[in-house]
Amino acid sequence: MTNLLWPGDHRAGDLMTDEALLATMVAVESAWLNALVGAGLAPVEAADADLGRLLDAQDCEVLAAGAEDGGNPVTGLVALLRERAAPALSAWIHRGLTSQDVLDTSLMLAARDVADMLKSQLSEQISTLSTLARTYRATPMVARTLTQHAVPTTFGAKVAGWLNSVIDAYRSLDAMTWPAQIGGAGGTLAATTELATLAGHHDGPAHVSIQLAQSTSAALGLANRMPWHTTRTPITALGDALVGCTDAWGRIASDIVTLARPEIAELSEPAAGDRGGSSTMPGKRNPVLSILLRRTAMSAPQLAATLHIAAALAHDERPDGAWHAEWDTLRTLARRTVVAAAQCSELLVGLEIHPGRMAENLDTADVAGEQRAIADLAESTPSPTYFGTVDFLIDDSLNRAQRFLKERR
């Protein structure tokens, strides 16, 4: 995908694209069909059917255009698969499922791929930030509060703060579960229970339905869960985890755009070709990676808020519009988060640090006000240094990172 109005969108590759989502929908239909065969509810001729082979390259665009008629893309997909499948197979495709089962489960599959990509990027960032914190733990600079000079700190301490936020983002994402959604028309698995009854499973047709859902979940590598048609926690939890990432990167980018100002000049973005160039001022170099990260951090929370609003308005057994509002919102949020992850990784790896400039700014700033006040209170003279517990703060962050990296090995 490309997007002229969202520079960097290509970094997300094919994640959550129409083609990727169509592939996951077909995977759900195939897994369910195989589960029906395994339970003896569909003929053996339908076993191991590769439904993906029934589709052509141009089908995605056709299905997208036709989705308006049914309000979702699954209706058209099922009709197309049944039309092209062999007669012995056709009638059993999608039997016992509903559109929401297929779409929700396919979104979980696609979103899990997004999370895997993000966790890889976050892990790299944790390693990079750990190195920066160790390298610059004793590099003095002025701390700034409410835009003004405050007290002395070190660049390592600032990086330790970045590091903590990135670790937190990883932890939230890693805690995600990816449940399949199998409930049938009203979330009661009524159709497959009826099938099991008619097939002679008189002792436990409902148990057969539950086993079908479990088998499908296992085949897809997803968690098994009772139907969650209008309990949208898996969607909102994912949105919150994605925003946790963009929050962390936005905080880093906000520090960098401030410290890269010419009058401060303590940091610089990595130089790469024409990046940061101006259309009118040839010598200008803008901190575009940080700017684009801030863009994402500013816009991501509203997308997650839409997911929460949709969850709150998800009434009945399938909502009229709230569910529909989630799909592209989640896709947009996911892709933008992946883009931001790659941009932040590149920014941190190539970040240029200027310790000399940090020292100059510290020397010319009056940062001893609190130190003098404490000395006056103690009726003494200020101590030669005033860095408080900087080392302990850095060590705490590095220890968290070390535990994280050890867990990953």
Summarize the structure.
The protein has 409 residues and is mainly α. The chain has 14 helices and four strands.
Q: How are the secondary structure elements laid out?
A:
Blueprint: H1 18-38, H2 59-70, H3 73-84, H4 87-90, H5 99-135, E1 140-145, E2 148-154, H6 155-174, H7 190-198, H8 205-220, H9 233-259, E3 267-268, H10 288-312, H11 322-350, E4 352-353, H12 355-364, H13 369-377, H14 390-408
Antiparallel strand pairs: 1-2, 3-4
Strand arrangement within the widest β-sheet reads 1-2
Question: Which structural class best describes the helix and strand composition?
Answer: mainly alpha
Q: In one word, what is the shape?
A: elongated
Q: How far is the N terminus from the C terminus?
A: 34 Å
How many beta-strand elements? Answer: 4
Mean model confidence by pLDDT:
94
User: What share of residues are in beta strands?
Assistant: under 5%
Query: Largest sheet, if any?
Result: 2 strands, antiparallel
Keywords: Isomerase, Lyase
InterPro entries: Fumarate_lyase_CS (IPR020557), Fumarate_lyase_fam (IPR000362), Fumarate_lyase_N (IPR022761), L-Aspartase-like (IPR008948)
Protein name: 3-carboxy-cis,cis-muconate cycloisomerase
Domain Fumarate lyase N-terminal: 77-297
